[in-house]
């Protein structure tokens, strides 16, 4: 059955697939014959998905990984979000459907990878700068002896003051950074998966006002140097790609120079600090989730816990 049949009537197409030998063939491991109870569960799950397709005017053939995550973000009749294990079961079911259809790359597989990348770390692993520590880093401006020092400083600022992941900072493109600030003094950064890790989620964030001038100054320096390519933070004069170990090493150095001593120092520490500072300053949770590029609301839980610990005086200081 080709994908056009799934676009015309996804419920009928799924029912035929579910009760065929092909369904068992898409299982990751050998499974017993499909029971009536399991068939009912799968039918209910796909029916909910098909209802969402109709409501949003979507088709199976036109969906991208982000669309599937958008579906998972919908709430049930009682306003409750999907539990992460249930969300994974939905994606696994859709992955089997797309595998049967033969669509490559499989959008459900990509969505599963994106969910895994967003999975919150345990609270004890969440290390974030406090507002005071973040202020120390921003205030400690290094002596710019070379263009690479200026590059490193600007890269650290987009992680600390805009919440970029290390992979997003490495793959940030010059065209993704606005050329002028917003009315409130922030600088819009529009991130796409291009040149980043496969699990990057398209989103927008805003660089805090106090970091805007330094980042724009770096981009002007980059242009004057005539560095080829479009990576905002190139590794060399040829426009090569930075290695993540370089980013982590420079982040540790920046924190040391600022007199900030905390465990597990690295680029992620800067991103965590941005999230916690913004949450404690009153940024709404949904707005924060979008700025961080998190696919689902539960991925924000570890940041919320770290923010609460800092408010209670139990976090970094």
Low-confidence segments, ≥5 residues, pLDDT <50? 120-124
Write down the overall mean pLDDT.
88
How many β-strand runs? Answer: 2
* Number of discrete domains: 2
Strand sequence of the main sheet, in spatial order? 1-2
By oligomeric state, this entry counts as single chain
Name the descriptors.
elongated, single chain, hpI Integrase, Chain A, 317 residues, DNA-binding, Tyrosine_recombinase_XerCD, Integrase_catalytic, DNA binding, DNA integration, 3% strand
Gist of the model:
Keywords: DNA integration, DNA recombination, DNA-binding. This protein is mostly helical. It has helices spanning 3-8, 10-18, 21-25, 36-56, 65-72, 84-101, 107-118, 131-139, 147-160, 166-170, 209-225, 244-257, 267-280, 285-292, 301-311; strands at 187-191, 203-207.
How would you describe what is shown here?
With 317 residues, the chain is mainly alpha-helical. It folds into two domains: 3-118; 124-311, Orthogonal Bundle (hpI Integrase, Chain A), CATH 1.10.443.10. The chain is 54% helix and 3% strand. The chain contains 15 helices and two strands. It has helices at 3-8, 10-18, 21-25, 36-56, 65-72, 84-101, 107-118, 131-139, 147-160, 166-170, 209-225, 244-257, 267-280, 285-292, 301-311; strands at 187-191, 203-207. Strands 1-2 form a two-stranded antiparallel ribbon. Helix 5 (65-72) crosses helix 7 (107-118), helix 6 packs antiparallel against helix 7 and helix 13 crosses helix 15. The N and C termini lie far apart (60 Å). Residues 120-124 have low confidence and may be disordered. Belongs to the 'phage' integrase family. GO terms for molecular function: DNA binding.
